[in-house]
Design brief:
The complex is a heterodimer of chains A (246) and B (223).
Chain A lengths: L29 H33 L5 H15 L3 H15 L8 H26 L3 H9 L4 H31 L11 H12 L2 H30 L10
Helix pairs in contact in A: 1-2, 1-4, 1-6, 1-7, 2-4, 3-4, 4-6, 5-6, 6-8, 7-8
Chain B lengths: L11 H38 L3 H15 L3 H16 L5 H26 L3 H9 L4 H31 L11 H11 L3 H33 L1
Helix pairs in contact in B: 1-2, 1-4, 1-6, 1-7, 2-4, 3-4, 4-6, 5-6, 6-8, 7-8
Classes of the chains: A mainly alpha (246), B mainly alpha (223).
Chain lengths: 246, 223
């Protein structure tokens, strides 16, 4: 089996080789397309990550409060978003929500996918936030309340500063998952890496080279996230509180 | 225009014609990949824990590689590679079965590895002291306990697997989601069909996860 890496230097329209591989205003090579697809993947993942962290943190906290309605609401949120496949959720946001709510039709499909992926991941993050908060001995919450802290103060000054350090390692793996899961965006025509792989493979019949590079980029992106969050984890560590294994 | 939902076209006849076939395939794919994945995953876990470098290293490489690639890409890879290797095209359905078995094995192997490591070393020394060999120790002491301790986690992974089967969309295999999509196209009612599809996935996954939680509390007492 011989590999021909020059496929990335071809023009996407006429298939001619372009000198220097990168195109210009008139010519777009497969390398240009690949880089832009990588950008889409990272943008979808990064924005969905923000949605997921924000929603996941709030829902996770709600599930540990002493207020029963809030706990039920948080649990329902988690069960709803955890038990529907991510691809089906993407379809729901892309096909169903705009049809039901005409006001939302102006939202670009890119943002709908971001919301879909973000909320799907928020359910998993809320589980970790809840577990993180519940792993702090109950005595600390009671002691803080006994000292006259209000419930928001208990969370702000006692529980959350510890909880989010506990949650960081599982959060790292969820952040890597979000990059992998962003691949479902291909199904609603977001021009990200997987869609690039599918289309470029069909056009050039050079599937192996293209899949290798795309797989490599996914691998590299996830590794990058892993290293960045590992540094954050080391920086924030409180000696003696949590054992960092790696 | 506000859209009025109308589910009346989803008759039993329509469901039987287009959806049941897909549902059966999704379930079949889940079961095949679960059984194959647990068997292969256990083998991989034993390889990693064997202490023999030419067994543990390839197993670790395989597991880590599979776990760091999106499933959609793995599905596409196998769909591209299997015909190249065997020389003849393989249907999307069969290709999906092979892919999911090999992919899920990586995840199941991590679970089985944790399960095997959860067995106290003393039990293994004791069984060797009683004259059992490696295979007997695994067969009678380690694996039955590892499997039982990890049963809830294995089943949770299977629920994730069931949800992931929807990704065969990438190669056009006819699964539950595809069945509903076909109905949606035929009757020009995509909104209703996607809603019902989501509901069915939810009911199946939620019921199973409730069952796993019950199992967990029951097993926790024994442990």
């Amino acid at each position: 089996m011989d590999l021909d890496w020059r496929v990335f230097c071809r023009d996407t329209i006429d298939g001619e080789f372009v000198r220097g591989c990168l195109g210009d205003a008139e010519r777009i090579t497969y390398l240009d397309w690949l880089l832009s697809a990588w950008g889409w993947t990272l943008s979808v993942a990064a924005l969905a990550w923000i949605v997921a962290i924000a929603a996941g943190a709030v829902v996770g906290v709600l599930r540990t409060t002493p207020h029963r309605p809030l706990v039920i609401l948080g649990n329902a949120w988690t069960e709803l978003f955890r038990n529907i496949p991510v691809l089906v959720q993407v379809f729901l946001w892309y096909h169903v929500i705009p049809a039901l709510f005409p006001l939302l039709r102006a939202i670009p499909s890119f943002l709908l996918v971001v919301v879909a992926l973000g909320l799907y991941t928020s359910a998993r993050i809320s589980e970790q936030v809840r577990a993180g908060i519940q792993s702090i001995p109950q005595g600390q919450r009671l002691a803080a309340l006994a000292l006259g802290f209000t419930l928001p103060q208990v969370y702000r000054h006692v529980l959350l500063p510890q909880a989010w350090r506990i949650v960081l390692p599982p959060l790292t793996s969820e952040s890597m998952n979000i990059i992998k899961n962003s691949s479902v965006a291909f199904a609603v025509s977001i021009p990200e890496l997987t869609l690039f792989a599918l289309q470029a493979q069909e056009e050039t019949a050079r599937g192996i080279e293209i899949y290798l590079i795309v797989t490599g980029l996914y691998f590299f992106s996830a590794l990058l996230v892993n290293r960045i969050l590992h540094i954050v984890e080391m920086r924030l560590r409180i000696p003696g509180l949590i054992v960092v294994t790696k | 225009m506000t859209l009025a939902l109308d589910f009346s076209f989803l008759t039993l006849d329509v469901l039987a014609r287009y959806v049941i076939k897909g549902l059966f395939f999704s379930i079949e794919l889940t079961l095949v990949a679960m059984l194959g994945g647990i068997l292969l995953g256990t083998a991989l876990a034993l390889m990693r824990l064997s202490g023999v470098i030419w067994l543990s290293w390839p197993a670790a490489l395989y597991v880590n590689a599979m776990r760091s690639i999106p499933l959609v890409m793995v599905i596409l890879w196998f769909f591209l590679l299997i015909p190249l290797l065997t020389g003849k095209p393989l249907g999307a359905e069969l290709s999906a079965m092979i892919t999911f078995t090999l992919f899920e094995a990586a995840y199941y192997s991590e679970i089985m590895r944790a399960g095997i490591q959860s067995i106290p070393k003393g039990q293994i020394y004791a069984s060797y002291a009683l004259g059992m060999n490696y295979a007997q120790t695994l067969r009678y002491i380690v694996l039955p306990q590892a499997f039982r301790n990890m049963l809830p986690v294995l089943l949770t992974q299977t629920i994730i697997l069931f949800q992931d089967t929807s990704l065969v969309y990438a190669i056009g295999a006819y699964d539950l989601l595809k069945g509903f999509e076909v109905v949606g196209k035929n009757f020009n009612r995509p909104v209703e069909t996607y809603l019902v599809a989501a509901l069915i996935y939810f009911v199946i996954s939620y019921t199973l996860s409730r069952y796993v939680r019950r199992l967990q509390t029951r097993l926790a007492v024994i442990r």
